Amino acid sequence: MTERRYRRIQEVLSKRQPDLSIMAEDVYKPHNLSAMLRTCDAVGIGEVYAINPTGGIPTYNETSGSAEKWIHLTVFKTLQEAHTLVKSRGMQIFAAHLSDEAVDYRDVDYTLPTCVLFGNEKRGVSNEAAELADQHIIIPMLGMVQSLNVSVATAVILFEAQRQRRDKGMYNAPRLGSELIKRQTFEWLYPKEASQLVRDEKAYPELNEEGLYKK
């Protein structure tokens, strides 16, 4: 059981894309945020940025498929704080936003370090966020409705990003550092033990090929 889980964790972490993420601006409905996290996990995103979700404390429901266990959600009080961090990590920001400058979501390059910004369903992306974005993107709608549910839009755009990255071979070799993979593996495999070791300010033990360690 432990060995199978260990192998699965290793496989998942080997596909993680540290330079691909999303930013959720005031996506306050738990089922939307949960579904967005589930899509992120599916395409290899390990960290998500959020601004004031659910009053500042994110909550989840069954639609996440427990994705919150595998995604690190960094929460900010302000858009500027989130924008500063994302840009410091060298990411371009695409805002899902209808404007005169917006282009088809398939016509931008997601193989570069990228963060896709989504607003909530009621107001969409704020004017400030739209101004800070490097590019506006849209999903062309051929029917009578003007837009998709935010979680559905997230899935559509991120699977295009996955397609581009897959075609470029960006999932063929691990892109996380070996030490980070080791650390994340231990935390996912032994969450209680990891929490205790952090409290005790002790290093994580080495795992053997079966995912076990000497206690």
What would you say this structure looks like, in words?
It is built from 7 helices and 7 strands, in the order H-E-H-E-E-H-E-E-E-H-E-H-H-H. The protein is α/β, with parallel strands linked by helices. Helix 2 runs parallel beside helix 5 and helix 6 packs across helix 7. The longest helix has 18 residues. It is elongated, with a radius of gyration of 18 Å. The two termini are 18 Å apart.
Q: What does this entry show, briefly?
A:
The chain has seven helices and seven strands. With 215 residues, it is α/β, with parallel strands linked by helices.
Helix content: 25-40%
- CATH H-level homologous superfamily name of the largest domain: SPOUT methyltransferase, trefoil knot domain
Rounded mean pLDDT is 91
SS-based class: alpha/beta
What is the end-to-end distance?
A: 18 Å
Count of helices?
Answer: 7
Q: Please give the number of β-strands.
A: 7
CATH architecture classification name of the largest domain: 3-Layer(aba) Sandwich
> What is the fold-level CATH name, i.e. the topology of the largest domain?
Alpha/beta knot
Taken from the alpha-carbon principal axes, the silhouette is: elongated
Beta content comes to: 15-25%
Side by side, the strands of the main sheet go 3-2-1-6-4-7-5
- In CATH's first tier, which class of the largest domain applies? Alpha Beta
Low-confidence runs (pLDDT<50, min 5 residues)?
A: 61-65
Using only C-alpha atoms, the radius of gyration works out to 18 Å
| Main sheet record | 7 strands, parallel
What is the N-to-C order of secondary-structure elements (H for helix, E for strand)?
A: HEHEEHEEEHEHHH
